[in-house]
Structure formats: C-alpha cells, structure tokens
Amino acid sequence: MSSETSPQSHEIRKPRVAVVFGGRSSEHGISVVTAGAVLRAIDRTKYDVLPIGITSDGRWALTADEPERMAITDRRVPTVAELAETTEGGVVLPVDPGNREVVYTEPGAVPKALGDVDVVFPVLHGPYGEDGTLQGLLELSGTPYVGSGVLASAVGQDKEYMKRVFTTFGLPIGPYVVIRPREWERDESAARKRIADFAGEHGWPLFVKPARAGSSIGITRVESFDGLDEALAEARRHDPKVLVEALLRGREIECGVLEFEDGPRASVPAEIPPVQSHDFYDFEAKYIDSASGLVPAPLTPEQTAEVQRLAVAAFEAASCEGLVRADFFLTEDGEFVINEINTMPGFTPISMYPRMWQESGVSYPELVDRLVQAALSRSTGLR
Asked: Model confidence at 215, in pLDDT bands (50, 70, 90)?
C-alpha cells in the first residue's frame, strides 16, 4: 500500500482503486451492472476510486462515477458507451513496472495524467477480461489486482481445460464432448457425428455451450437432433469452440470461496430451484427476472461440509486467488458433481456469490474491502 504524503497537508494518500468494467465479451452489460454495485459499496473514506470502462469495441474510456446509471432498467442492461465522458478519448494503463500513472488522451490534445493507481478491481466477465488477458497486462505493469492470476483466470474461463484440471485432481465432473474450431472447419459432418455418438451414449437432452463464455449466454438445451444445428450456431456466435454436456439430473448447488489470511474458506451453499418460466437457469432468469436462490441451501450438515470441501478443492486445483463461485449438481444418487467455477462471478446485488457471503457473515461492503486489501497485500509476478 502506498504511503505517499502531500507536501501541503502531510496526510497519507488513500490507495487508489481503478474499477475496470465493460469489455468486448457478450457479458459486457452485466459487467457494467457489477461495476455499479462495487462503486456503490466501496468505502470512499478509505479509497480513492477511478472508474474505467471498456467499450464493446475495446476502447478504454473515462466514465462518470455514477453507479445509479449502471443498473438494469426496463429489462435492459447498460453499456460503457452510454457512460463514457467522450466518444473519442482513451485511457492508457502503464506497462512499465516502475510507473503506475494512468494517462487520458484525446486526438489533438496534450495527454492528461490521471494519477497513480495502486490496485485494479477488474469486474469484467468473459473473454478479454476474465480469461487472463487483462491479468497478463497488469502483471506486465506490476500493478496489483483483485482476483486470480493469468493461469487460473484462463483455466476458469475455458470449460474444457477447467474440466481437464478437475479430472487430474480427482474432482467429480459430468460427461462432455468438445468441438474445436479446426475440427468444425475441417469436417462438419464428422463433428456432428461425434455429438450424435455422445447423445447415443448419454441420451437427450443435451446442453450446447460456448466453451469460453459465462452468465449462461449462448447456451441452449437441445431435446433432439432437430434443434442441434440451431444450438451449435448460437454457441458458435459467441465462441468458435463448443462444449456439449449431458444432462445431470439433480439439484443445482452453488458455493462461494473467499481467500482469508489463513487460506481459502467456503461460504454457506445456495440452491438454485427450478425456474418454471425458463428451460434452465439462463441469463434472463439470473439477471432480468431475478430468480431467487435458496440461501442457505436446504442440505444436511454432511452435504454442506462436502460441497464446501469440494469448492475449496476446486479453488486450489486451479490455483485461484481472491474469490471463486463453484457450481455443482447434487445428483439423484446423492453425489456432488462440479459443473464449473467462476473466477469473477456475478457481483450484482442479486447475485448468488455476495448473497452466500452475506449469509456467512460477510456483508457486501466488507466483501469488496477484503478483496481490495488482499490484492494490495499480494505480490505481483511469479508466486
């Protein structure tokens, strides 16, 4: 943490937190909503805050610090373009480890220094932010940041390699098949046959997903071959690599993991009950229709302890840092199967991760503060 003082006031400078949000992924809007919640909760007596939005086309924009404009309104998510102070100016983060000064530039104008940044709170979801790309930039600059590092972020974003890591560590996963871009481009009929063979072995319905997306965007529940092509096209619209999973019959259970001084701990788990108006717990059910989960989940003490153990084991297996939400199925035979982890889970007021920690005794403002403090105390580089 910086201890710089002002020559005039001799007061200790508050740590400066850059909240980076938006981004180029299909989860752009929900990232803006998440940022609004973080900006409302962060302690302004303890931190200076610099909101930085990334537009859908990749421009780093200086935005107004107005979290009230960053909420879902009339079933519509906000965008960085609506919040940006100009349509042309751009924010530049340093890439020199000896310099943490953020600069704002506009065409034909002298660059404007915005001051040093002590820590970045990246609330981007999906590719180009949650997947290790932004984390790599911050590692190059030596800037501390909230959440997992490059490897864990990449593993947490790519559902194929996430499952491969879990398998290596002996964690239980469900049946799946992956269709990679080159495989699809080389021989579509062979790729479809692989899915057909998978369906023949595991039955319908199947879930067709983008391999590197989140917030349930691009996912289709497919009941038969009739809907397969449309589902593949929808998944590939978000990611050229496609994941196909078998249906696991059981209850959907989630558990939060948060890093404390003595290591990661698990929250009380939550249950996502069936949503009658949706085929599954999709984007609209999560964020638009505000489907409510049960917190804590109605589990036995033994089941609660087991899902908490598995959540921490998944956190450790992927070398995560800071926070993770781990999603499970409790199958009809009473076994937990891990579906996925999210290294930057939904952080909106109705999101399950903060709700689980609220029930575990950590309020939303305390959660934000703990994550920032952990990032400030963590070394950058190899660790």
From this structure: low
Q: Of the ranges 5-9, 49-53, 347-351, which one carries the lowest mean pLDDT score? A: 5-9
pLDDT confidence of 7, banded at 50, 70, 90? very low
Distance between terminal CA atoms of the chain?
18
**51 beta partners:** 19
- Three-state SS sequence of the chain: CCCCECCCCCCECCCEEEEEEECCCCCHHHHHHHHHHHHHHCCCCCCEEEEEEECCCCCEEEECCCHHHCCCECCECCCHHHHECCCCCEEECCCCCCCCEEEEECCCCCCEEEEECCEEEECCCCCCCCCCHHHHHHHHHCCCECCCCHHHHHHHHCHHHHHHHHHHCCCCCCCEEEECHHHHHHCHHHHHHHHHHHHHHHCCCEEEEECCCCCCCCCEEECCHHHHHHHHHHHHHHCCCEEEEECCCEEEEEEEEEEECCEEEECCCEEECCCCCCCCCCHHHHHHCCCCCECCCCCCHHHHHHHHHHHHHHHHHCCCCCEEEEEEEEECCCCEEEEEEECCCCCCCCCHHHHHHHHCCCCHHHHHHHHHHHHHHCCCCCC
From 75-79, 154-158, 285-289, the region with the lowest mean pLDDT: 285-289
Region 128-156: mean pLDDT is 94
> pLDDT band at 291, cuts 50/70/90?
low
Q: Are strands 16-22 and 48-54 parallel, antiparallel or unpaired?
A: parallel
- Quote the percentage of the chain above a pLDDT of 90: 73
Residue 355, φ and ψ in degrees, nearest 5: -65, -40
C-alpha 255/C-alpha 267 separation (Å) is 6
pLDDT at 2: 43
Which contacts (CB < 8 Å, 24+ apart) does range 84-90 have? Answer: 84/53, 84/55, 84/59, 85/61, 86/61, 86/62, 89/61, 89/62, 90/59, 90/60, 90/61
In the prediction, which pLDDT does 87 show? 84
